[in-house]
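Problem: given the chain below (107 residues), write out its structure.
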Amino acid sequence: MKLSGNNLIAKKDNYIDYEGVYGNVRISSGLHFWTVTIDRIQDMNDVMIGVSSKMSNPGSQHHAYDKFYGWHATNGRKLRPHSTTGKTEQKDYGQPAKQGDVIGVLL
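Solution.
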């Protein structure tokens, strides 16, 4: 994953599963809003948008959804850890994104 524009632009140049970009701002309270513009979708598992706790190995499939709350933009499903098992739950949550869409995130 390549970052540019003061780390506001993330571009996936090569196909590598489970690449991620994490913010560098700690959020512990309050309301926060940001947008993500979908420039290109290459693969049906390409884009997930959300929030996550910091992980020691974000490139690993096992940790890809650990404490991740978000939206899988290419299939329109929301993801979250189950409250008792911790395993990832997915549920339909709107239409999939397409090139040019702007996704708003409110935390």
